[in-house]
Prior knowledge:
Layout: E1 3-14, E2 19-21, H1 22-26, H2 33-40, E3 44-46, H3 54-69, E4 78-82, H4 93-101, E5 107-111, H5 117-129, E6 137-144, H6 154-157, E7 162-174, E8 182-190, E9 198-200, E10 213-215, H7 217-239, E11 248-251, H8 256-266, H9 277-280, H10 287-297, E12 306-313, E13 317-324
Parallel strand pairs: 4-5, 4-6, 11-12
Antiparallel strand pairs: 1-7, 2-3, 6-7, 8-13, 9-10, 12-13
Helix pairs in contact: 3-4, 7-8
The structure holds oxa(dethia)-CoA (UT7).
Amino acid sequence: MSVVRSVVTGVGGYLPPNIVTNDDLAKFVDTSDAWIVERTGIRQRHQASPDQAVSDLAFEAASRALEAAGRTAAEVDLIIVATTTPDLTFPATATIVQRKLGAPIGIAFDIQAVCSGFVYALSVADGFVARGHAKCALVIGAETMTRLMDWTDRGTCVLFGDGAGAVVLEPRAGEGTTADRGLLGFALRADGTKKDLLYVDGGPSTTGTVGKLRMQGNQVFKHAVINISEAIEAAAKGAGIAIADVDWFIPHQANQRILQGVANRVGLDEAKVISTVALHANTSAASIPLAFAQGVADGRIKPGQLLLLEAMGGGLTWGACVLRL
Length: 325
Ligand code: UT7
């Protein structure tokens, strides 16, 4: 059966040049490099400069993804930005990126699913691309998470970083089999009763301020491995693939222990895990496309390979996605 698939034709990532090490943080908050590395695997994070907005990071990543795809901004007809740290309350950061790229009038909007945003955005973009409503889509995860930090809270401020990653999605004919290139399946989940475990304590309709990130880290940790594993198994089943056939696992980069725990639980070889948490820390919606870009750039991830993406974040939201590059 002939079908239209949404195929990733280009990947790009951007990290702001300023690097903040664990020792840098230990100068003003009661923590240590040893604690952070042991409990999270994080060694450093990138921090956007004060004059860099999240749309600037997104623009850089999007430009690199377009170049990798051999496309120009003039061809882009859909832009989705997954972000929890938009430039402004409105308009959508996607429209700002559209203007900065010089992309023509098309569809542009943001998705707010926090760390799960990129997986949610890919799934939404698939609806446009596979149904013929977009021919050249940019799906971007971009964050300036360091702007949401309470720098006196050692339980959160050591965990996050800034960055952006992007993919270009284009329609391609497939045979309707798991050998097709493109998005093959996904599973998205949300549980609003768990809001207090991870949230920002401000917003336009409540405090009128941006707010700071609050997290009960150990509670989130407990939910993470179990929830993510269920979504991975559902996405794999929907795609019709066996988890053992996955070439590369590209998880949301929150904590090295979670990455390994999930891989073990679903029976994935740890050697198949693309891990950037040590160098990027948790960049929320940007972490998956950044890790994806890293894996492609260093030659590990190759066209034709089967990829498994997953994430979990505030909401709680979580989800997984299977695609063949
Ligand atoms: O992207 C969204 C999803 N987010 C996540 O997936 C995050 C999930 N959670 C985690 O990664 C981990 O729970 C953390 C890394 C946040 C915390 O690790 P933990 O092993 O769960 O530690 P804990 O929160 O249970 O705290 C243990 C101890 C506490 O001290 P006491 O009360 O036992 O004396 C904390 O105060 O570690 C202390 N602690 C720290 N010590 C040094 C917490 N943060 C720090 C720190 N430096 N930065």
